[in-house]
Structures are given as C-alpha cells and as structure tokens.
C-alpha cells in the first residue's frame, strides 16, 4: 500500500519538481498538488499520510496548516516542510507547531522522494544547516530556562535514542547505531512521546532540552 502524499507549493516549477520526486519513489503516491492554504485545508478530512509543505503561500503561512493538523489531534499525518526560509524564527516556529522535518529547497527530486519516505517511517529529516541551528538554539534555551517540572522519567536507552533523533537520525539509522530492531525503536519513540506529552519529533527535542535531558 503506497503512502498518500500531498504537495503544498505555489510555485509551479518547484511543485512539479517535488511531485516528480514523490512519483519516483515506489512507496509513495502523489494524490494532489495544491498552491494555497485554502486548497490544502480542503484536504484535511481526506486520508493523507504526508504533507510536503512550503511555508510562504499566497494566502498565509504554512505554519498555520501544521497547527491545524495537530489541533485536530492528528498524530499519524506527517508534515515535511520544504522551504527557502531558513531563518531561526521560522524554523523554530515550524518545529514547535509540529513539523516532522524541515528541508531547504536545494534537493534534487530523488532526494526529496527519499526524505519524504524517511519522514513516513519515523525519521526527522533536517537539512544540515537547519539541524545545526536547531540544536544550538535549543541548547541556548535550555541554559536560559529552568528545567520543566516534573522531569520526564525517561530510561537511559530512551535518552540515548533522543540524542540520535536530535541529530536527525531516522528510526532505521538509530536502530543500526543502537543494535536493536526498528520495531523496538518505534516502541521507544512512542514511549518517549507519551512521557514527554508531545506529538512530534520537534516538540520532543524542545521538551527534552528544556528539561535538561539533552545537554551535549
């Protein structure tokens, strides 16, 4: 069963480029390309596995769509941001809203398809510059704020996994590093989400840093 993907992008050339990347991956099915928030909102009641989302749309910010998806309690639908916007405020806002990954528009179509597949299998795709910024910013926040109370009671293995997730590792990559099965990684991720009371990788990183769980 192929995963259903919607591309939200107002530039026709970029939209076609992203669409090709989706179509070239055998595990993905491109169900729609839309260019506005309004069109994307009309699809929220449909079964969509992944939105590949630009942030600068004609009728608003893509962050609004991320917030609406999460406000509906939808934890299964993944959101992968693909944007030219790489400033710190925009990146952090998207992650805090519940984005599962954030990529800059410098990828070829094959890379886009693979990163989309990674997001669907539990990965947290981040462009290297974005990952480096996010980690630096969250560490700075952690140093300036008191740990959340009460501290989440994560196991040493869960904390070790969080370190990998914060660096952008996929479930499969983390499984190799930790020498356990991807299925077990998935169970750990669910446990981490439950204990941290979050619904996305970005939120998990923020909560972990603010709680002092990740310091290096």
CATH architecture of the largest domain: 3-Layer(aba) Sandwich
CATH superfamily of the largest domain: Response regulator
| Order of helical and strand elements | EHEHEEEHEHEHHHHHH
- In angstroms, what is the radius of gyration? 17 Å
Average pLDDT level: 82
What count of helical segments does DSSP give? 10
- Specify the helix fraction band: 40-55%
Widest sheet, order of strands: 2-1-3-6-7
> What structural class do helix, strand and pairing data support?
alpha/beta
Distance between the termini: 40 Å
Unreliable stretches covering 5 or more consecutive residues: 145-150
Q: What proportion strand?
A: 5-15%
CATH topology of the largest domain: Rossmann fold
User: Which outline best applies?
Assistant: globular
What is the CATH C level class of the largest domain, in words? Alpha Beta
The major β-sheet equals:
5 strands, parallel
Topology, number of strands: 7
What is the number of independent domains?
2
């Amino acid at each position: 069963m192929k995963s259903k993907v919607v591309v939200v992008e107002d530039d026709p050339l970029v939209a076609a480029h992203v669409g090709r990347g989706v179509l070239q991956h055998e595990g993905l099915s491109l169900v729609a390309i839309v260019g506005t928030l309004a069109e994307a909102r009309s699809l929220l009641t449909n079964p969509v596995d992944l939105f590949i989302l630009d942030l600068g749309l004609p009728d608003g910010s893509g962050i609004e769509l991320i917030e609406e998806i999460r406000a509906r309690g939808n934890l299964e639908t993944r959101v992968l941001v693909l944007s030219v916007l790489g400033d710190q405020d925009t990146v952090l806002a998207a992650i805090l809203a519940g984005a599962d990954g954030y990529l800059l528009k410098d990828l070829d179509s094959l890379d886009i398809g693979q990163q989309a597949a990674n997001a669907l299998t539990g990965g947290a795709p981040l462009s290297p510059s974005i990952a480096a910024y996010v980690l630096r910013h969250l560490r700075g926040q952690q140093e300036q704020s008191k740990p959340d109370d009460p501290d989440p009671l994560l196991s040493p293995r869960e904390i070790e996994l969080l370190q990998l997730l914060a660096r952008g590792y996929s479930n499969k990559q983390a499984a190799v590093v930790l020498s356990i099965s991807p299925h077990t990684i998935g169970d750990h991720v669910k446990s981490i989400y439950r204990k941290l009371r979050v619904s996305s990788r970005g939120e998990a990183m923020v909560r972990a840093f603010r709680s002092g769980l990740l310091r290096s």
